[in-house]
Structure formats: structure tokens, C-alpha cells
Amino acid sequence: MPDFPFTTVDVFTTSRFAGNPLAVITDARGLDTAAMQAIAREFNYAESTFVFPPTDPANTAHVRIFTPEEEMPFAGHPNVGTGFVLARLGTLFGRPVPDRMIFEEAAGLVPVTIRREAGAITGATVRAPRPLALGTIVDPVRVAALAGLDPADILTTRHPPRFASVGAEFLIAEVGADALARARCNVAAFEAAEGNIGQSAGLLGLHLYARHTDHIEVRMFAPLAGVTEDPATGSAAAALGAWLNALDPAETRFTLHQGRHVRRPSLIEVEAGPNAVTVGGPCVPVMAGMLHL
């Protein structure tokens, strides 16, 4: 089997070794699902992406996304980072890479727009492939157990804890700032809840958020997917933004802070409306090399 080129990039940050790291295999032709899962487990990042030629030549690429334990139908930081990497690459499968791309993914078509400053590629913005879908409401007692909190820490004034998705599903709950800082991933509680509290697909991910005056701070736990705590979760940020906009249409722009509890501070920009939600931010290249298989 030939060698496979890869690039790693830190996403949702302007500082190397912050944000959420991502491995992008820029030409994955010849790799099957088992090999991609093994490679994702080897990198052991929250996600790794694998780029194939598009099935429809009108699109830019077919992209598959893997955590260390499962394939994702859609994810935010992998799309932002993959767009950034491909734009810097310049050509893909013999064609120039445009600043507006379309990725084919399991959740649908994902538009990606490259960000530039003074001509330099600095990051990307991604539009979620699906409209907001709200799922099962979950008892605050069960949510609190997942995060090592008291049931009183789960705030329900604005909305109950509930599954929400714009392409990838998360259990979303609001907490106070103090409770967010105290939250700890309870792996045993996740193992007990998996498949029993209403998620429709994939492994359980819990997205907690706390409102501040000028921003929202978030944390995301998905230990059964190999992500005990994620530094930045764009797909969950998009679902949260879409849900908050649905609750209050006057709220359209959100700045989400994530990752400081794992020493990888990240900043996610979300814009939501009735018909679409986008997530975006800057990226920093870190490594490039070859996989020897």
C-alpha cells in the first residue's frame, strides 16, 4: 500500500498548541473503513478526516470523519480545519481548490468558505448540513450524574436538557458558571446511560454551557467516543446556536469559549438564523508528514 500524506492543524485558535487538533489525510484513496478507524485511533485526536474525490464533480471532495472510536456524520472543527488545509494545498485531485467548497458527508452537503486576511488563508466558516432537530428531553438528575454535578446545577428556566442536532446529535444543558467549572466527566454514568436516555444515533456526547455577559462558555464530554473532554466542538456549538436562535430569534450571533479546562483554549464563532447556522474560526498549521501503511 502506498504512503498517505497528512497534515495536522489546530482549529479555533490563532496560537499553535491551543484550539482543537485535527489530522487531515489529504488523499485517502485506497483506505477502507477499518484502516481509517485505526489511523484515527493512532492519531488519538478528537477527530481525523479522510479526503476522497467527490462522487459529484460539482462538489469539492468527499470527506469522512472519525473519532478514535466511531465515524461521525458531521463535525465542526474537522470541516473548518479540512477546508483550511485543502485551501493551503492549492490543488486537489488535479483541480484547483476554490475558496468556496462543498464537502460530501454522511449528514449531507457541507458548504465551507475560506477566510483570508491580506490574501493569507487564516481559517474557514462552515454551514451545518441540516436544520435544527430537537430530540428527547432528559431528566436533569440523569444529566447531572453524567457531569458529576447536583441536579440543582442544571438550569431549566430557558429550556430543559434535550438532544439537539444540525447534523450530529448532542445532549445540551445549561448550567451556571460555577457548575460548569466543577463539572467532571463521569465515565461510569455515561456507560450506564448509553442507549438508554434517548439519543438517536452515535455515542453519547454531553454539551454543557454557561452564559456570561459577552460570551458563552461550553464544555463537551464524550468518553465512549474516545473524547473525555473536547477542546472545541463546532457541531455542538452549531446545534446550541440554532436552538438559542429558535428560542429567541433576536439572538443570532454567539461567541463560544471552550477548552480552557484541558489547557487548549478555543474560540468558536456561531451565526444562526431560521434557515441556516454557521460555525467558523481561525486555524494554525502544526505538522505534515506521511503515513506508512
Strand order, largest beta sheet? 1-2-3-4-8-9-10-20
Structural class: alpha+beta
CATH structural class of the largest domain: Alpha Beta
In total, the number of strands is 20
Question: Please, could you describe this protein's structure?
Answer:
This is PhzF family phenazine biosynthesis protein. GO terms for molecular function: isomerase activity. By secondary structure, the chain is α+β, with helices and mostly antiparallel strands. The chain has helices spanning 33-43, 76-89, 140-146, 177-182, 187-193, 234-247; strands at residues 4-11, 20-25, 47-52, 61-66, 71-72, 91-92, 95-96, 100-105, 108-117, 120-127, 133-137, 154-155, 162-165, 169-175, 206-211, 216-222, 227-230, 253-258, 266-272, 277-291.
Helix and strand topology:
Elements: E1 4-11, E2 20-25, H1 33-43, E3 47-52, E4 61-66, E5 71-72, H2 76-89, E6 91-92, E7 95-96, E8 100-105, E9 108-117, E10 120-127, E11 133-137, H3 140-146, E12 154-155, E13 162-165, E14 169-175, H4 177-182, H5 187-193, E15 206-211, E16 216-222, E17 227-230, H6 234-247, E18 253-258, E19 266-272, E20 277-291
Parallel strand pairs: 2-3, 4-8, 14-15, 16-18
Antiparallel strand pairs: 1-2, 1-20, 3-4, 4-5, 6-7, 8-9, 9-10, 10-20, 11-13, 12-14, 13-14, 15-16, 16-17, 18-19, 19-20
What is the compact description of this entry?
The mean pLDDT is 97. This protein folds into two domains: 4-127 and 281-291, Roll (Diaminopimelate Epimerase, Chain A, domain 1), CATH 3.10.310.10; 133-274, Diaminopimelate Epimerase, Chain A, domain 1 (Roll), CATH 3.10.310.10.
